[in-house]
Amino acid sequence: MLTIREAPKSRTAIAGIYTDDKCTTDTRFVFSREFVEKVQTAIRRFRKTFAVDCEDDSVGVCVSRFGIFMLKDIKAMDQWHTCMEFLAQTEDAMNWAVSTCMKRFTIPEELSNGVTTEPRERLKCNQEAVASRRARDIV
User: Fold this and answer.
1) Angle in degrees, 0-180, between the axes of helices 33-48 and 71-99, rounded to the nearest 10
2) pLDDT tens figures, 50-99
3) pLDDT, tens digit (0-9, with 9 covering 90-100), for 113-130
4) Element containing residue 24 per DSSP (H, E)
5) Cα separation, 130 vs 137, whole angstroms
6) Is 139 exposed, middle or buried (0-12, 13-18, 19+ CB in 10 A)?
7) Minimal CA–CA distance to 36: which of 6, 1, 59?
8) Nearest residue to 71 (alpha-carbon basis) of 43, 94, 96, 110
């Protein structure tokens, strides 16, 4: 399980070109979303100072008392935050679906032709449809 580490508000991220042997390789935490965005901005500014685009593998950021992190690690932290947001939204949608009474919704007449309102009957129809597709695939 990853923990979110808060970097102090005054903490600065110094972007630069670093070698792999100086960088932190065993990261077991992520920085806060705000700090990750701050670090990404620092890296973008640093990369713009060069006439030639430097490789992603060599660009990193030094955070005092935490170490040096490569751009790929910062990107991974950003993706982790994005995934956690999507997961929270998915859980909210699932909770809504579970707690919503389906009797509040009506099926339009043109869609209800031959469709039963009994959940067990619909499940049985779906299982029969899957079985018939499998039988066709075998032949």
Assistant:
1) 140
2) 766 666 667 888 887 788 888 888 899 999 999 999 999 999 988 887 88
3) 666 667 777 677 777 777
4) none
5) 11
6) exposed
7) 6
8) 43
